[in-house]
Amino acid sequence: MAKDKNIRNKKSLLQKLRHKYRLIILNEDTFEQKASLRLSRMNLYVFGSVFFVFVVMIVTGVIAFTPLKYYMPGVGSIDVRTQLIEVEMLTDSIQRQLDKRNLWLENFQMALSGKLDSTFFISDSLHPLDLKEVNIDYRSAEEQAFKEKMKDDPILTSVQSEIAAIAVTDQSFYPLTFQAPTDGIVLAEYNVKEGHYGIDIAGKEEENIRAVESGVVIISDWNPETGHVIAIQHKNNTLSFYKHNSLLLKKVGSFVKRGEVIALMGNSGELSSGPHLHFELWQNGKPVNPLNFIALEKIN
């Protein structure tokens, strides 16, 4: 009996779900029939479920693939995320620049104190090479002609006499003559009283800058005032500095030969007002006048 009752209940439920109803739309004033729709409970459930799933999919798609998702709790806006990325990149860039500047200051302080030695940077494979035996002359034809022209000049003769005097009083300064760092005219000379510890050589943009003597690069970096700077450690605690370059061609630790191109002339740094090379020579932590050791043309 109970089984038959359950069967009757199921049939009754199915009949209710399948029972047809008519939905009629009438004009309120005239009661004229405007439209009618024949439905069952089953149709309403099916249509309602399909419509609900469709709406959920549409809403999910709109939130997932449009900027609306940034208004959801826990999701930052696109502007904030972009700013965070930019701040992170800027912080990383500043850190790299700070590391470079600290390295430059450390090398510069050690260079001025005369604590750097070129043998420290040369690898074991280069140790057998005695720098005293390196005497490769890279002088250009123009420089040779200029030296021939100036060999009898009284000023040059006076400079050579001063060099000879230095050679007698200070045998540690070697060599007594250097390769000219670039082709050009000296616009500003060495003047310790004015704080100008080198010479300014005017030339063409992108002119070759050459190593005045063989040695090891200890600085190859940039700073706001003197722009792109490269410095070379030579024998007997002798240093040469090349400033305001447009491009540096050698890295720290590189061994360069006399006359080898190490940079290109430029106008970099706040203290530069035109294409030129600011060149300095230091020996035992003290600046010396480069014109005492290099033959260059000067403006009268």
Could you describe the 3D structure shown?
The chain has 300 residues and is α+β, with helices and mostly antiparallel strands. The chain folds into two domains: 2-69, no CATH class; 98-298, Glucose Permease (Domain IIA), CATH 2.70.70. The chain is 36% helix and 25% strand. The chain has six helices and 13 strands. It has helices at residues 2-18, 41-65, 78-112, 118-121, 141-150, 154-169, and strands at 20-26, 33-40, 185-188, 198-202, 208-210, 215-223, 227-234, 238-248, 255-256, 261-265, 276-283, 286-288, 297-298. Strands 3, 4, 5, 6, 7, 8, 9, 10, 11, 12 and 13 form an eleven-stranded mixed β-sheet that branches. It has a two-stranded antiparallel ribbon with strand order 1-2. A hairpin with a 3-residue loop joins strand 6 and strand 7.
Topology:
Layout: H1 2-18, E1 20-26, E2 33-40, H2 41-65, H3 78-112, H4 118-121, H5 141-150, H6 154-169, E3 185-188, E4 198-202, E5 208-210, E6 215-223, E7 227-234, E8 238-248, E9 255-256, E10 261-265, E11 276-283, E12 286-288, E13 297-298
Parallel strand pairs: 3-13
Antiparallel strand pairs: 1-2, 3-4, 4-11, 5-10, 6-7, 6-9, 7-8, 8-10, 8-11, 11-12
Task: Give structural attributes.
alpha+beta, 25% strand, two-stranded antiparallel sheet, 300 residues, Glucose Permease (Domain IIA)
CATH homologous superfamily annotation of the largest domain: Glucose Permease (Domain IIA)
Structural class, judged by helices and strands?
A: alpha+beta
Helix fraction bin: 25-40%
Strand content: 25-35%
Number of helices: 6
* Overall tally of domains: 2
Distance N terminus to C terminus? 131 Å
Low-confidence runs: 117-138, 166-173
